[in-house]
Amino acid sequence: MTVIEEDTFYWREKLIKVIFGKDSNLIEIGAGAFEYCRSLTSINLPNSVESIGVWAFASCALTSIELPSKLKTIHSTSFNYCDNLTKITVPTIALLSFRGSSPANNYINNVKELTINGGKVISENNFKSFSYAFYGNLTRVEILNGVEKIDIKAFASCKKLETVIIPLSVTQIADSAFLNCGNLTVYCEASQKPDGWGDDWNITDMSNKNYASVVWGYGASETRL
Prior knowledge:
Helix content: under 10%
Mean pLDDT: 88
Distance between the termini: 38 Å
Largest sheet: 7 strands, parallel
Strand order of the largest sheet: 6-8-9-11-13-15-18
């Protein structure tokens, strides 16, 4: 099976868990495929999935979701009204898809923990993804190995953000990447600031010249967060 068609499991309120086999070749999840599965708390999406349609998981009881790194297309409403969804793993390409014109136009507002699992650049355009799509409620972001660049204002105005974990693969961070993130501590796997990181990469307040706290050499000896 490569496609779950539109509305295939629509309003199946007794559906609790969905498990795909390791050899699944699923590519597409259609519009509303699991919409109103109000008891659905768990689903493991296979790595082969490339497209998730509108309202595909809307109004489900999911608490966390890991989107595959090969994902190419997802809609801003794919997880609307998943009020229990607090933890999400996404590739960088999917971040902009969660963005609306304002926080009021997004409905995954309870997400607090974000893991970025694919792509090379977290661009300045992602700024509205973090502060709009997740309504500024993010407290923790972990960037997995493979991302190489964090652009200007990528995480700007995520005012509740407390923890960001940056892997060795990140060789460039622009100035003001974490502007207006006043409660932030950044955990860096690098032992010191790489040459490609701006002098003000961790500035949080331009007026008062405040900077986020930094822990260098993270993961080398201490237990990971």
